[in-house]
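Annex B. Sample input.
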Amino acid sequence: MSLDSNLNSDGSADRSSQRPKIWVDADACPVAIREILFRTINRLNLQLIFIANQSVNIPESKLVVSIVVPHGADLADHKIVDMMNEGDVVITSDIPLAARVVEQGGVAIGSRGELLDDKTVHSRLAARNLMDQLRSAGMTTGGPKPLSQKDIQTFANQLDRTITRALRKFS
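Annex B, continued. Sample output.
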């Protein structure tokens, strides 16, 4: 499926006929979350774009695109931010990427269903930076707990609310 935007006569993007896209920072996206995304885009006829530094197993669909970027620090993140549009939704657990998405007018959802928007992302980024400083100072902070069924349900509910809001903005 093409990622081309509809253009106005002056060359600017015509957002009136577009719908939000869902972008996925796919290198660390859990399979259960991918399955929810596949069901959602098929139900709502939305485009889903996976960006990763390795091939991602995706179903055959005109609604799903996978883009592989070279290995390197934050190259997938840069690609997402470069290609997304205002109003798009990005699935990521990467808080610095979520902050960049919000700066571009998008909204991010973490794989546990955390909404990362202009109201929440800055405090999450500050907490992430504090934890990074503590780890750099030698403190053991532990990693994230495994994804639970409750996390998956929270993600599905948040995705539904976020997409519903985004679709309203485009109508």
